[in-house]
Amino acid sequence: MITNTAVSHSPQYDDSEFEYAGFWIRFAACIVDNLIIMIIFAPYWFYNYQQMAAMPVDQIPFYSTGDAILNLVLAAAAIWFWVKKGATPGKMLFGLQVRDAKTGQFISVPRALLRYFSYLISSVILCLGFIWVGFDKKKQGWHDKIAKTVVVKRIR
Question: Start and end of every RDD domain (predicted)?
Answer without folding.
Answer: 20-148
